[in-house]
Write a structure and sequence with these properties.
Strand content: 25-35%
Radius of gyration: 20 Å
CATH topology of the largest domain: QueA-like
Number of strands: 17
Number of domains: 2
Order of helices and strands: EEEEEEEEEEHEHEEHEHEEHHE
Helix content: 10-25%
CATH architecture of the largest domain: 3-Layer(aba) Sandwich
CATH class of the largest domain: Alpha Beta
Shape: globular
Structural class: alpha/beta
Largest sheet: 9 strands, mixed
């Protein structure tokens, strides 16, 4: 397997607040456009996305919505923790991550967390055991006095990490086209979209079609390969992906979640099929991609597993050139930062 791209990320390039707080519109963030055929790099803004696509192309979006998935918890001895709800399993249990209030994961406590944690107002979470051998993720049962989404709306908040300097409401972590709540963390490549950009795409003859992949909790200390995630690729989306390829258009995924979902739904024959279930697919340069021609994504941390997926789409030389240019030009990282458009 290829070595993951390594580089130094200066703290000042970590976006600590939404672009709206920096005086920009959602679609006003910067966009580096990388062309595989020529190696050309173009500095632009996301609002100009329609300029870089052609009639007959297809944009595939992930309509999963972000949950307020972080909740405060307390053990019987009075010690406090934060529980991140990652993924709901088919048996209604949850995969959760437990962190100290200072942000450290349980594996860094020097021991396992308490078995039962109180969430307030009679709610509890009971840790059953490690999830798939992980030292930070747990299978858990929730005992809540209200339906989960109703309870989270009242008691939860969006998951955020140390580079975000203060809490932001869940609306700051929602894409404008989100329709199905279920992601622990925002599928953030789509954040710059606005109704106006979507309208301009459609007016140009670029198709826009949905799928759903509910994202789990990212690994903060050491980037791990992704765990299984729930996905739905509708029959209409699979049909449009196949038709776009047959007519010579480009299929452009909005985010790594869309790449994982589409590639999971596409066979060795390159044909996309309706899919409703789970995926444990990890995309590497050795595996390559079959359904996706282009990708809009954010900027990923040094040696992140997602960089292997990007390399599968771009090739290593263009990926290295893109990241060198983004660092030199001061592009911003993370969910509130700038974006990277990779095209054939």
């Amino acid at each position: 397997m290829s070595a993951r791209l390594a580089f130094d990320l200066p703290p000042e390039l970590e976006a600590s607040e939404p672009p709206e707080a920096r005086g920009l519109t959602r679609d006003g963030v910067r966009m580096l456009v990388a062309h595989r055929d020529t190696g050309e790099l173009v500095h632009s803004t996301f609002a100009l996305l329609p300029h870089f696509l052609d009639a007959g192309d297809l944009v595939v979006i992930n309509t999963s919505g972000t949950l307020p998935a972080a909740v405060d918890a307390m053990a019987a001895d009075g010690s406090r923790a934060v529980v991140h709800l990652s993924t709901q399993l088919d048996d209604r249990r949850w995969v959760v991550e437990v962190r100290r209030p200072d942000g450290r994961a349980t594996a860094r406590w020097g021991g396992e967390p308490p078995t039962v944690l109180a969430l307030g107002e009679g709610a509890t979470v009971r840790l059953v055991g490690p999830y798939l051998g992980s030292d930070r993720l747990w299978v858990a049962t929730l005992d809540l006095p209200l339906p989960t989404r109703t309870w989270l709306t009242a008691h939860g908040r969006p998951i955020h990490y140390g580079y975000v300097d203060r809490p932001w409401p869940v609306t700051a972590y929602q894409n404008v086209y989100a329709t199905e709540p279920g992601s622990a963390e925002m599928p953030s490549a789509g954040r710059p979209f606005t109704p106006e950009v979507i309208t301009r795409l459609v007016a140009k003859g670029v198709g826009v079609t949905p799928l759903v992949l509910h994202t789990g909790v990212a690994s903060l200390e050491a980037d791990e390969t992704p765990y299984p995630e729930r996905l739905i690729v509708p029959a209409s989306t699979a049909m449009r992906v196949n038709a776009t390829h047959e007519s010579g258009g480009k299929v452009v995924a909005i985010g790594t979640t869309v790449v994982r979902a589409l590639e999971s739904a596409t066979g060795d024959d390159g044909v996309a099929r309706p899919t409703d279930g789970w995926t444990d697919l990890v995309i590497t340069p050795e595996r390559g991609v079959r359904a996706v021609d282009g990708l809009l994504t954010g900027w990923h941390e040094p040696e992140a597993s997602h960089l292997l997926m990007l390399e599968a789409v771009t090739g290593r030389p263009l990926l290295e050139a893109s990241y060198a240019a983004s660092l030199a030009e001061g592009y911003l990282w993370h969910e509130f930062g700038d974006v990277h458009l990779i095209l054939p």
